[in-house]
Each structure stands twice: as C-alpha cells, then as structure tokens.
Write a structure and sequence with these properties.
The chain is mainly alpha-helical. Helix 2 runs antiparallel to helix 9 (183-212) and helix 3 packs parallel to helix 6. The radius of gyration is 18 Å and the shape is globular. It contains 9 helices and no strands.
Length: 213
C-alpha cells in the first residue's frame, strides 16, 4: 500500500504538470495532427524516458543537481532557440498548404522516439520542477531514500506523463478528424502557442538574470 501511494503521488504530480501548454506536449500534438498517433506516441515515450532519468538523477544526486546552474542556463538558451524554430516552422507549414501542413522540424527523417529523447534532453524546465517536488516529498516523509520508493515514484511519473501527453495527442487528432478542423489553422494556433511559450521562456530567463545580478 505504501508503494502504491508513492506510485499515485508520482502519477498525479506528473499528469497535472503535463497538462499546461509546453514545448513537448504541444510538439506531440502537432506530430499527431500531421503524422499520426503512432509517431506521436513514439515521441512521447522518448520524452518521458529522459524525464524519468532526470528524476532519478535528482533523487540520488540532489547536491550535484543544485550546483549545475551554469549548465541549466546553457540549456535554457538552447530550449529558447528550439521553441522559436518550432514556432517559425509551424507558421511556415500553415502558410504553405502544399506541404501537407507538416512542421519540417518535427516531421523529419529522425525516428520520433529519438526526436523525443533529444528535445526532452535539452529541456531544463523539468529538472527544477522535479527537484522542487522531490524536496517537498522528502521533507514530508512521503518519499524516503529507498530504492523501492524511488522505483514506485518514477513508474508513477512515467505513467502520468504518458497520460498527460495522450490528452494532447488524441485531442489534436480529435480536432482534425471529428471536428473537420482545417490543419493549416491548427498550425497557426500551434505556432502561436510556441511563440507565447518562447516569450514566457525569455521572460523567465531575463527575470532570473536580474535576480542574480
């Protein structure tokens, strides 16, 4: 029962944390819209594999993670560039319907599983998110420094992330298939979401820089 509680804790935090619009879940949705459900699921599995590795690292090496601020800053810049590129590619796809509305970055020859791994690996947002939650759970004794607790917690996180991404994957297909939505319009919307996400990312980086100045 204790391990099931840790599993449910990880699942709940991960599922709710995946629902706000972000780079990875919106990318999964766009892949589902342009390439289909199977590639989007492959992308999502690749992304969550990296996420659970980051969580495991944050659990067993908290002091090391806390000291990697310079690395996180570099990753933040890389993430910002990727989000801007995704936004531009979405607008280009929307403006050129002859290209089947595909985002050239997300709909390339790279296997979607590897694409998910790559994009998740350079996305530093999840590291402080899980670092913070793990710290709280340790403080409240909900999570103890035991491998069985870690494994149950991480399994719940993996399931929660997959379920959260599935909302975007199947929701995107529903808009196209059931509602007869125009894919070019969806690309404009997704491009706008990426642009807003890039703006938020840049604002957070600027605020953090001012706070440490």
């Amino acid at each position: 029962m204790q391990l099931f509680r840790r599993f449910c804790t990880g699942l709940g935090i991960s599922f709710l944390g995946t629902l706000p619009l972000g780079t990875l879940n919106v990318a999964a949705m766009q892949i589902a819209v342009s390439d289909g459900i199977k590639p989007a699921i492959g992308f999502s599995l690749g992304a969550l594999l990296v996420e659970i590795c980051y969580v495991r690292l944050s659990l067993v090496a908290m002091d090391w993670v806390r000291k990697q601020q310079k690395l996180f800053r570099y990753l933040e810049w890389i993430t910002l560039i990727i989000i801007l590129a995704l936004s531009v590619a979405s607008f280009v796809a929307a403006a050129h319907p002859s290209g089947d509305g595909r985002n050239v970055i997300l709909s390339n020859s790279m296997p979607r599983f590897l694409l998910g791994i790559t994009m998740s690996a350079v996305n530093p947002v999840q590291i402080p998110f899980w670092f913070g939650w793990s710290t709280i759970l340790f403080a409240k004794k909900i999570l103890l420094p035991r491998n069985d607790h870690y494994n149950a917690y991480i399994c719940g996180i993996g399931v929660g992330t997959f379920l959260g991404n599935s909302v975007f994957i199947f929701g995107g297909r529903l808009m196209v298939d059931s509602l007869n939505a125009n894919q070019n319009i969806l690309n404009y919307v997704i491009g706008g979401v990426f642009a807003v996400t890039a703006g938020i990312q840049a604002w957070r980086m600027f605020r953090k820089k001012n706070a440490t100045a």
